[in-house]
């Protein structure tokens, strides 16, 4: 990137970031997620680091917070409320640690680690233990007077608690505090400032939204919007009706010496505090970050990272401030579930059913713990809905094990060089015409013998029959050589067909043929999957197998009979009927039988778990996910790939994905692996 290109991009980024910051901080609304905004800010920060001459006083990287609203009185903070520098990886964290060690000219100091609560930061001023004023961060120097609203939050004491003698004595023993601190705590005379986060617990957020939805009123997008909006209400009665909470993370330096002691003092004088721990070694800090990242879904409040602060107050002050952030503290953010990136191209892929799917190639971006380079655009209607163009800066979403997708376009960052995405009139693989089927929004290749369709159907059958050692490249080669044209042809392969091909020999050819011959017996659900019936996946195939028990009965099923089956709606039912009406498909089943394929008899299904729907997330230690599914189905239960109100149980293994979070929000019962095995 040239300096001129960087200057133009930086200016665009400043304008867009400031626009979204104004929406969020002043108008209490939000168009993009925190993760997407963080990504834009990080891009601007990197540009300014690369080209220092681009740094301006009005840059979003050089300021704190937003403008106070005129409807509240303004309060000047006794000490500036700084924001923190964000880091997004272990490498960035280590770089920060190395920098402050050089400035401090020593390495033997420790840190205090705190969960970064996703809420609204406020400053509380107490005089002789009585709450006098409360203010939002505002622009860092001047905030909004929200005292009356803060007084409605029960978690915030209107009068500080004076620790008893035994507690002060224990504090002396544990931390060797001075007599002056002990005397102060015994009376709490004088003026003192406490800072912390106003937030809303998960269960209360969900409950409030359910009530609003039932009333037909607008629900809240996220908990921080609710916290900010509630604190900025003109009528304290509205704030009082909201289930707000508070955790403290800072107290004036009264001689306590460390952040750790400060947190203990906050507890003693009546505050809930952010979860924290002291650490010194890099490995311990990394370990704690990973521990919190895994455990955050189980916390009763939202967090978006870990705050890492130099524990010693004197050293913290000595390190000073760089730009608008203190050197001695950072926020190590969790991998965002949303980030921004640029679309570099769009390609259309043909699947096993002939459906054309547009897939965007994007500049590599780190989101939800992985580097993403591609994202689906689903169909032409989605492209039109998003208004997306090649060259656009877009919002990329990926949560847990969800496939990456583009959910928004930042049109204000357009330069005029963006290119519209063309919708193909011909198949990109075989050049045949494409068509829409009825009211279907998807495009399909009209050529049943399209190379890509043949390849994907064969690959799909390979997976269904659990044939090992036969991948996409080999199948592509066999199709080009004319020895494979359909899934049935897999079972006609001979050693002589393969051994003379480049890259193969007698041994490898024999291994492939023997592996295929060993997989001629298959269950009915997997055989249904192998047929590549449009809209029929693994769960639906099992439901159909359970209902009809034999492939010939399924082939003769009527539309009304299929619709009655669990997990089968009208669209799926019509796909099944249309599939078996086609003579080519009927012939394929006969051909499978002629090459020796045997469908195992359906085992008698127990009714122990009948009517119960399970969702699996994470890895199980004692059995594979496929084994777990088979055990559930053998007992009459259903397995679904997504969580809904109809889900009875979510089985959570190690490193569960976003399904666990959704289950908690919906109040679905969550089973540990041990509890799951007990049910079986």
What does this structure look like?
It is a single chain. The protein has 26 helices and 28 strands. It is of the alpha+beta class and 680 residues long. Helix content is 38%, strand content 20%. Strand 11 and strand 12 (325-326) form a beta hairpin. It has five domains: 3-62, Helix hairpin bin (Helix Hairpins), CATH 1.10.287; 74-333, D-amino Acid Aminotransferase, Chain A, domain 1 (2-Layer Sandwich); 338-443, OB fold (Dihydrolipoamide Acetyltransferase, E2P) (Beta Barrel); 451-599, DNA polymerase, domain 1 (Orthogonal Bundle); 613-679, Rossmann fold. The strands form eight sheets. Strands 14, 15, 16, 18, 19, 21 and 22 form a seven-stranded antiparallel β-sheet that branches. A five-stranded mixed β-sheet has the order 2-13-10-3-9. GO terms for molecular function: DNA binding; DNA ligase (NAD+) activity; metal ion binding. It catalyses: NAD(+) + (deoxyribonucleotide)n-3'-hydroxyl + 5'-phospho-(deoxyribonucleotide)m = (deoxyribonucleotide)n+m + AMP + beta-nicotinamide D-nucleotide. One of its GO terms (biological process) is DNA replication. Residues 604-680 form the BRCT domain.
């Amino acid at each position: 990137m040239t300096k001129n290109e960087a200057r133009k991009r930086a200016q665009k980024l400043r304008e867009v970031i400031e626009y979204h910051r104004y929406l969020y901080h002043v108008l209490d609304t939000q168009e993009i997620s925190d993760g997407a905004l963080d990504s834009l800010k990080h891009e601007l920060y990197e540009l300014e680091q690369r080209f220092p001459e681009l740094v301006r006083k009005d840059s979003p990287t050089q300021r704190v917070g937003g403008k106070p609203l005129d409807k509240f009185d303004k309060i000047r903070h006794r000490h500036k409320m700084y924001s923190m520098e964000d880091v997004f990886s272990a490498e960035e964290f280590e770089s920060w640690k190395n920098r402050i060690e050089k400035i401090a000219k020593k390495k033997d100091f420790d840190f205090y680690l705190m969960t970064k609560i996703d809420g609204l930061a406020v400053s509380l001023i107490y005089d002789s233990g009585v709450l006098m004023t409360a203010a939002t961060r505002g622009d860092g120097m001047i905030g909004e007077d929200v005292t009356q609203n803060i007084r409605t939050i029960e978690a915030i004491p209107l009068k500080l608690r004076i620790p008893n003698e035994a507690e002060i004595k224990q504090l002396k023993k544990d931390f060797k505090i001075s007599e002056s601190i002990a005397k102060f705590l015994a009376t709490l005379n004088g003026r003192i400032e406490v800072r912390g986060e106003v937030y809303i617990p998960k269960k209360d957020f969900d409950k409030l939204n359910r009530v609003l939805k039932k009333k037909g009123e607008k629900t809240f997008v996220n908990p921080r919007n609710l916290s900010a909006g509630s604190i900025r209400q003109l009528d304290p009665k509205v704030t009082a009706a909201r289930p707000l909470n508070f955790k403290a993370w800072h107290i004036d330096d009264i001689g306590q010496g460390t952040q750790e002691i400060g947190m203990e003092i906050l507890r003693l004088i009546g505050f809930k505090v952010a979860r924290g721990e002291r650490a010194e070694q890099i490995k311990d800090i990394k370990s704690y970050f990973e521990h919190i990242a895994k455990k955050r879904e189980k916390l009763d409040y939202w967090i978006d990272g870990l705050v890492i602060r130099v524990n010693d107050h004197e050293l913290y002050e000595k390190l000073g401030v760089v730009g608008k952030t203190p050197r001695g503290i950072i926020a190590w953010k969790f991998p965002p579930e949303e980030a921004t990136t640029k679309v570099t191209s769009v390609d259309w892929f043909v699947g096993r059913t002939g459906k054309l799917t547009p897939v965007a190639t994007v500049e590599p971006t780190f989101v939800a713990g992985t580097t993403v380079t591609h994202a689906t655009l689903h169909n032409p209607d989605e492209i039109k809905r998003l208004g997306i163009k090649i060259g656009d800066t877009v919002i990329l979403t990926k949560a847990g094990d969800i496939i990456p997708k583009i959910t928004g376009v930042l049109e204000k960052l357009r330069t005029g060089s963006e290119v519209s995405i063309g919708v193909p009139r011909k198949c990109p693989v075989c050049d045949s015409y494409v068509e829409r089927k009825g009211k279907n929004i998807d495009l399909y290749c009209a050529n049943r013998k399209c190379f890509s369709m043949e390849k994907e159907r064969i690959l799909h059958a390979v997976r269904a029959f659990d044939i090992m050692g036969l991948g996409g490249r080999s199948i592509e080669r066999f199709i080009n050589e004319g020895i494979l044209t359909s899934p049935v042809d897999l079972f006609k392969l001979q050693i002589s067909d393969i051994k003379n091909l480049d890259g193969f020999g007698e041994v490898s050819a024999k291994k492939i043929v023997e592996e295929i011959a060993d997989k001629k017996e298959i269950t009915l659900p997997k055989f249904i999957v192998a047929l590549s019936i449009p809209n029929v996946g693994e769960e639906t195939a099992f439901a159909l197998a359970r209902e009809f028990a034999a492939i010939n009965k399924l082939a003769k099923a009527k539309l009304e009979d299929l619709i009655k089956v669990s997990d089968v709606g009208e669209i799926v039912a019509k796909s099944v009927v249309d599939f078996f009406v086609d003579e080519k498909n009927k012939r394929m089943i006969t051909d499978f039988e002629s090459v020796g394929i045997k469908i195992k008899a359906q085992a008698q299904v127990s009714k122990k778990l009948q009517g119960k729907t399970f969702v699996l997330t994470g890895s199980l230690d004692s059995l594979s996910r496929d084994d777990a599914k088979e055990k559930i189905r053998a007992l009459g239960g259903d397995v679904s790939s997504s969580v809904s109100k109809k889900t009875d149980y979510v089985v959570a293994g190690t490193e569960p994905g976003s399904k666990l979070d959704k289950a908690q929000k919906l109040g679905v019962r969550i089973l540990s692996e041990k509890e799951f095995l007990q049910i079986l």
